[in-house]
Amino acid sequence: MTRIVVLLVGLLTVLMIAGLAHGDYPIPPGELIALLLKPQEAPPHIGMIVFDLRMPRLLLSILVGAALAVAGAIAQAVMRNPLAEPGILGINAGASLAIMIVIVGLDDVPASLTPWVGFLGASAMATAIYALSWNNGTSSLRIILIGIGLGSLAGAATTTLTAFGAIMDVQRALIWLSGSVYHADWAGVRILAFWLALPLALTFLSCRQLDLIRLGDTTAQGLGQRVTLVRALMIVLCTLISGAAVSLAGLIGFVGLVAPHLARRLVGPMHARVLPVSALIGAVLVPAADFLGRTIVAPAQLPAGIVTALIGAPFFGFLLWRHRHAAA
Q1: How many helices (H) and strands (E) in the chain?
Q2: How far apart are CA 112 and CA 98, in angstroms?
Q3: 10 Å Cβ neighbour count for 200?
Q4: Inter-CA distances, 298 with 23, 185, 270, Å
Q5: Is residue 91 within 8 Å of residue 242, measured between CB atoms?
Q6: Distance between CA 131 and CA 64 in Å, rounded?
Q7: CA 158 to CA 105: how far, in whole Å?
């Protein structure tokens, strides 16, 4: 595992240097490293570019990627479904609908409220799904089916608002829905770091519970786990982590699907290893997607969510093919 972690940290370091150095005003890597070591000696305009524009964007993408990856690992363990990811719990659909209602349906809503609205929408949807799936306990299958149903309903409502809303408002909402970190600032980075600190810490302390619950309800109960309570707590943590990331960066899909799969292939199924490696992989994927998005069609920019979809959709197809082949 140590080699994997060192490799991922090295790759992340390269991406960080590339992300800070590349842009409309390129900064040579040597000059950038000197700037980072002695920021007080930097020319004001270069310091502003690096520390006020590029650094918050980079740090936000790292936090979002790590959060989505950990949330995906939780979802796959709790649902015992290798194709699960945070969106299956209705988090993305709830956040999307809430944001669309506020931007398209209401007038003069401050932009600073958008992250809070997205987070509340994600939390409300997850709560509704869990409540509707309760029947003297919960099961992964009921949660998945109700999540798909309510997610489709929320998606239909979002599409309706898109069709009948004012064009300018719809464009603003669609920019958010596409998933991007180009609007990042230090306030957003601090808010996300604050939101994530406790849920991530609790998740990493719950590795044994995730190992047990992925074995199945009967086996986990036989080993002394209170399955229904643990499932509820894990869904809460998944919602808090993914909802916070989605509320600040929009819908950046497939990271929660891809990162845990890669982590399990690299370090095995134990969550004490899977969670940190998943977080590192997610912390690499989103900055890489953001970097590609602002370089492949420069000077225009592709949102990171579109790039991750281009990467994740083939990976999702491969997973479907592999499991179908195994079943055959």
Answers
A1: 15, 0
A2: 14
A3: 22
A4: 9, 22, 41
A5: yes
A6: 28
A7: 11
Spatial distance between the Cα atoms of 72 and 148, rounded to a whole number of angstroms: 16
**Interhelix angle 114-132/186-204, nearest 10 degrees:** 30
Q: Global pTM? A: 0.88
DSSP label at 153?
H
Q: SS3 helix, strand, coil % of the chain, rounded to 5?
A: 80, 0, 20
Between CA 116 and CA 99 the distance in angstroms is 9
- Exposure letters 59-72 (e unless 16+ CB within 10 A, then b): bbbbbbbbbbbbbb
Residue 126 has a CB neighbour count (10 Å cut-off) of 25
Closest CA to 119 of 291, 256, 244: 244
Structural contact between residues 121 and 96, judged by C-beta atoms closer than 8 angstroms: yes
Residue 192 and residue 64 in contact, taking contact as beta carbons nearer than 8 Å? yes
CB 284 within 8 A of CB 14: no
The DSSP letter of residue 23 is S
The tens place of each residue's pLDDT in the chain, 328 residues long, gives 789 999 999 999 999 988 888 877 888 877 787 777 777 777 777 778 888 888 999 999 999 999 999 999 999 988 887 777 877 777 788 888 888 888 887 777 676 777 788 888 888 888 888 888 877 666 777 888 888 888 888 888 888 888 887 888 787 777 777 888 888 889 889 989 998 999 999 999 999 999 898 888 788 888 788 888 888 899 889 888 988 888 888 888 889 888 998 899 899 889 999 999 999 999 999 999 999 888 887 777 888 888 888 877 777 677 667 665 554 4
Report how far residue 173's alpha carbon sits from residue 295's, in angstroms, rounded to the nearest whole number.
24
CB contact set of 201 (below 8 Å; sequence gap of 6+): none
Query: How long is the chain?
Result: 328
Cis (ω within 30 of 0) for the bond into 299? yes
* Nearest-angstrom CA–CA distance, 211 and 220: 9
Identify which of 13, 12, 11, 18 has the alpha carbon closest to the alpha carbon of residue 291.
18
Q: Token digits for 193?
A: 């770091």
